[in-house]
Each structure stands twice: as C-alpha cells, then as structure tokens.
Amino acid sequence: MSFQAWMQAIRERTATALDRRLPLSSHAPQRLHEAMRYACLNGGKRLRPILVHAAGEAAGAKPETLDFCAVAVEMIHVYSLVHDDMPCMDDDTLRRGQPTCHVEYDEATALLVGDALQTQAFITLADTPLQPATVNALIRSLAHAAGAGGMAGGQAIDLAAVGQQLDAAQLEQMHILKTGALIRAAIRMGGLAGESLTPEALEQLDRFGKVLGLLFQVVDDILDCTASTDVLGKTAGKDAASDKPTYVSLMGLSGARAFANDLLSQAQQLIAPLNTRANRLQEIALEIVRRTH
Amino acid sequence: MSFQAWMQAIRERTATALDRRLPLSSHAPQRLHEAMRYACLNGGKRLRPILVHAAGEAAGAKPETLDFCAVAVEMIHVYSLVHDDMPCMDDDTLRRGQPTCHVEYDEATALLVGDALQTQAFITLADTPLQPATVNALIRSLAHAAGAGGMAGGQAIDLAAVGQQLDAAQLEQMHILKTGALIRAAIRMGGLAGESLTPEALEQLDRFGKVLGLLFQVVDDILDCTASTDVLGKTAGKDAASDKPTYVSLMGLSGARAFANDLLSQAQQLIAPLNTRANRLQEIALEIVRRTH
Questions:
Q1: Which of A275, B93, B219, B241 is most deeply packed, by most CB within 10 A?
Q2: Which sequence spans correspond to the domains of chain A?
C-alpha cells in the first residue's frame, strides 16, 4: 500500500473508532455529546493516530488494539485544541476550516467538551485488550505526556512567554512539552502495544519520538509564517500577530528550515536500526518536512 | 479514635499526600504549579477522601494504599470546582472562604489548573501499589464517574436546566451524575483497594454510595437555602438566585428535610450487613445529615 493510501486508511479507521468510543448524541446530555463529536469528527489530519499505528506496526501490534491508543491520544489532542481556542486562551474562531467549538456551541459547553474528552481518553485506554500491566503503562505514558509535566505545562509556559524574548533552549523546552510530549507518547504507546520490544528498542523509539515532536513544531512555525489561512484551515500568522516567540522569529525563515532538515536527519538515524519495520515512521518524518517546501 | 478525630486524621494525611503528588511550585511552570496547589491545599472538607478511607477500612485495605485513591478522587473534585467557578460557568468568586482560582490567578491559568489536575489524578491512580488489574479497575471507576456519563455529563444537564422546571426524577438524574457519581466512585474505589470483597459486598457498597451521593446533594440544597455565606465559605443562595432547580425549590424546605431523612434510612439499611467494619460509613451518613439540623 502506498504511504498516502496507508495514511488515509488510518484516518478512516480512526474516525470509525472515534465514532464508536464517543457517547451517542441521541443520549442525554445531547448537546455535550453532540459538541464532543463536532470537535472530534471534523476531518483532522490525525497525525497522532498515524504515529501510533506506524510505531505499532514496527512493534508488531495488532491494528485493532492500536485503535484504542490512537483514539485516546487523539481525544487528548482534540481536548487541548478545544480549550486552547477558548477566549481566555488563544481566542481563535476557526479550526480546520470550521467554527471552533465555543463559537459553534458556547464557552461553557466547550469547557465541558474538553474536560469530558480528556476523561474519555482514559476510559478508552483502560479498555485496551492487552495485559493489565501493559494497559497501565499506556495510561502512564499518556497521562505523563498530557499533564503539568507535559502538554498542559507547555501551554502554561507558552502563556507566560507572550511578549517575552525566549532563547532557543527555552523555546525548545516549551515545545517539547506543549506539542512534543503527546507526539512522543503516541509513538511510545504504539511501541508498548506490541508487548514485545526490548527496553532498548523502546528507548530508541522514544528518542525518535522526541526529535519528531520538535520537528513537527518547527514545521508548524514555518507554515504559520508562510502559508495562507485558506490552506491551513486555521488563522495564519496568529503566533506572530500575538507576539508569541516562534522558531521563525528566533532563527529567521531559512534558519528554521535548516533546523528542520537537521532534525529530519537525526530522526532518520535514530530509526535506522529498526530496518524495514520502521518504514512508515521514516515516511512520516519525510512527510512532515515536505509540507514546508 | 472518635469519629471527629478520625476524620481530622484523614484530612491531614490527605493534605500530606496531595502535597506529595502535586508538582513543586519551585519547578517550571511555577505559576501553574502554584495555582494547582492553591486550588487543592486550602482546607477543604475532604469528603471524598474520607469516603475512600471509610470504605477501604470496611474492605481491609491499607491506609497507605488508600491515599493514592483519596488523592486521585480529590483532584478530580477540585478540578471540577475550579472549572465550575469560571465566568463561563457559575462565575463564582468565593470558594472555601478564599478567592476562586481564576480570581486569584487568571482565567487561562484556572483552565489549565483544572486540565492538569484531572491528568494528575490518573497519574496518581496509575501509581497505586496494587495488582495491575486492580489499578485498572480503579482507573475505570474514577474515569466513568468523572466523564460525560458522570460528573461532566451532570454539569452539562445542570447548564441546560437553568430556568427550566425539572421534575423530581430529572433533578435526581442530574445530581446522580453531577455530584453523586464521584461520591459513589470514592466508596467503590475504597472497596476495590481491599482486593478481597466479594462481588456481592462490592455491589452493596456501590448501592450505598449511590444513596449517599443523593443524600449529600439534598443536604447541599438545604444548606444553600438556610445557611449564610459566612458559614458556608461560598456564596449562599446562589442556586436560587440563578434560578437553578433544587430539592428545596421542588419539595419545599420541610419536604427536602424529610427526603434527606428517608435517604439516611436507606443508606443505613444497605450498609448494615457489613456490621462493625462499616462503622465509619454509618457515621459519615449521620454526619452529612447532622449539618441540616
């Protein structure tokens, strides 16, 4: 199967799995359930589910098992977007070309949507059909990536950084937490779900995940600067306009592109020992960078 | 040990355990960590930790193990208070006699505090030193109680109910989800942590938990109507002022008091077969009702 067709197949199976793991909008409280579905089922890129499946394939996990991990990590991602878009945070009105959740519904509903999606992620993960000890390891990985020592902590640093001059190390630390932790967890969870990787191979995957997370953010900053709102499906130039530090503001556009290429090389070297089993991971790293050219 | 001294001892050990399981405010992001601590360590009543320990004592669990469950359920409770107090929800400025989190810090920080506390609850629970299958059961119990089919769903029904006329069954359904689910989960988690109760005894505990949750809400409605802001440590009369349905608005004050007494009898009967092991649970049920007289 071509890489593009494979990614599309993962997107489709993830949409099906999300649909199955979200509460029915015909059941009370209908408005909350409908809004949870609105936030999740809107044709996202599904990068994190794709990473779960790619790493899971490298670790010999079953796709049906990986769906639980993919849904869980995507729900955490979507909850963070819903809360991040709210007026007290980024105050964004457009997401994936559609009105954001608090615009389509209301702020109180958006708050509860994010809260309930986070919980639903852990409900889903707890149902993963694997050994209880593996399920616990999955829950730990996702929770550590999502909480104060991961994504939520990164958001807090991001908030505090508005209007500040960060150096490269501080910016990297913020992004490693804010977006990197969840990307890394997606890859780690795919690896854990195989239940057969050596600790060394899992560690190698984990380091790959860390580099890939950073790569994703550098590319995101480049796109925020170069692409139009129409192409992105979200408001372009938002970070620059709100005086948030980015890799482009720090390194310039060509510096950020060079850094992205350097991270791509690191990622490729880290994953090389896994050989052909990691082909999908190699393709994903290339695909992320391709968007900038 | 007297019941009052026992409750105080649980409050103190819970504060110590919360302190240990919360990120240090000396570590970045400091403001988020400090605000998480502000929200959690302010001398709450700790009803849910007390329920965990009382049920755990009945089930023969170790207090040191129960601390993990107590911290986790309290963090979920506190996160819900922080989000519930925000301007887009109840817009409350006073909680336990102190400024609410978004007043003391800011809305964006309060949003992240709630998000990160929810995650921290699952991190804590995943670390509980019990069999992996028991840990999974604990995580499932808490997640089901907190999510769209529990507390968050109850909040959504509550939002939709403002200005509406609910009947007794609808009001009960809302409260069973909004506050009851977490109280019930606290008792269930204590029971699970013993790793020795029969399914029948666990089921009995669970039914007790359901009745106790409802009892707690009826008493809360009575207090909201009869007590002063000074005594409550939160704004009194808030529900009536915002036209939210309560047991008092539905049944009148004497009707609500009679209903509370009826629920107390049910609770006492349900727990009677557990004999002296359930003494603390009996005392808690009495204590909840005592506040109304």
A1: B219
A2: 3-290
Q: What is the pLDDT of residue B205?
A: 93
Distance from CA of A85 to the nearest CA of B (A): 11
Contact (CB, 8 A) for B111 and B83: yes
Closest-approach residue (CA) in chain B for A85: B108
- The conformation of residue B46, written as its DSSP 8-state character, comes to -
By CA distance, what is B130's nearest residue in A? A133
Predicted ipTM of the assembly = 0.93
Interface touch B115/A116, C-beta < 8 Å = no
Model confidence pLDDT, tens digit, residues B39-96: 999 888 999 999 999 999 999 999 999 999 999 999 999 999 999 999 999 999 999 8
To which residue do tokens 């001059």 refer?
A: A165
Decide if A143 and B160 are in contact by the 8 Å CB cutoff: no
A61-80: per-residue pLDDT in tens? Answer: 999 999 999 999 999 999 99
What confidence category does residue B250 fall into, taking pLDDT thresholds of 50, 70 and 90? confident
Domain A3-290 in CATH 3.30.70.100? The answer is: no
Q: Which of B275, B214, B223, B216 is nearest to B248 (CA)?
A: B223
Q: Where on the phi/psi map is residue A227: left (φ > 0), alpha (ψ -120 to 50), or beta?
A: beta
B170: distance to nearest CA of chain A, Å? Answer: 11
At residue B242, the pLDDT reads: 59
B23 at A interface, C-beta within 8 A? yes
List the single residue in B with minimal CA-CA distance to A177.
B29
Nearest to B238 by CA among B104, B170, A32, B248: B248
Instruction: With beta carbons under 8 A apart, name residues in chain A contacting B89.
Output: 108, 111
**B228: alpha, beta or left, given left = phi > 0 and alpha = psi -120 to 50?**
beta
Higher-pLDDT residue of A163, B116 = B116
CB contact under 8 A, B118 and A119: yes
